[in-house]
């Protein structure tokens, strides 16, 4: 798998207790849907990011299953209510069981 696959996170790094913050994440990935043919006419095998798990202080926030219709370089945005200082951890997994993680800390004042 390519070495340039990189998850990215955008979230504010400070918040007030109980504040709802927006979280944005994107992963660069070639995303083959299994329906395209190569120059010789053979089907290019499916290879997509098929899962995203997000935790905050090791507690589940989101568990997403992605299917063939997802775009290359999938982007997700969602909101999370923060009650305490903690770390958002993102784990992306593809069809070959490769996984990439990224973390972002939010300081609650």
Our count of helices gives 0
Distance between the termini: 41 Å
Global structural class: mainly beta
DSSP E strands, number: 8
Number of domains: 1
Gross geometry: elongated
Q: Mean of the pLDDT scores? A: 93
Radius of gyration: 16 Å
- What strand order characterises the main sheet? 2-8-7-4-5
- Biggest sheet overview: 5 strands, mixed
Beta fraction of the residues? over 45%
Order of helices and strands: EEEEEEEE
What does this 3D model show about the protein?
The chain is built from no helices and eight strands. It starts with 6 loop residues before the first strand and ends with a strand. It has a five-stranded mixed beta sheet with strand order 2-8-7-4-5, with no helix packed on it. Strands 1-3-6 form a three-stranded antiparallel beta sheet, with no helix packed on it. The chain has one domain: Immunoglobulins (Immunoglobulin-like). It has about 110 residues and is mainly beta.
């Amino acid at each position: 798998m390519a070495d340039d696959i990189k998850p990215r996170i955008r979230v504010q790094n400070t918040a007030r207790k109980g504040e709802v913050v927006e979280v944005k994440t994107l992963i660069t990935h070639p995303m083959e849907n299994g329906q395209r043919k190569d120059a010789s006419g053979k089907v290019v095998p499916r290879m997509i990011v098929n899962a995203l798990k997000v935790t905050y202080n090791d507690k589940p926030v989101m568990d997403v299953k992605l299917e063939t219709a997802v775009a290359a370089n999938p982007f997700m945005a969602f909101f999370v209510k923060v009650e305490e200082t903690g770390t958002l951890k993102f784990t992306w997994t593809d069809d070959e069981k490769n996984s990439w993680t990224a973390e972002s800390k939010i300081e609650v004042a």
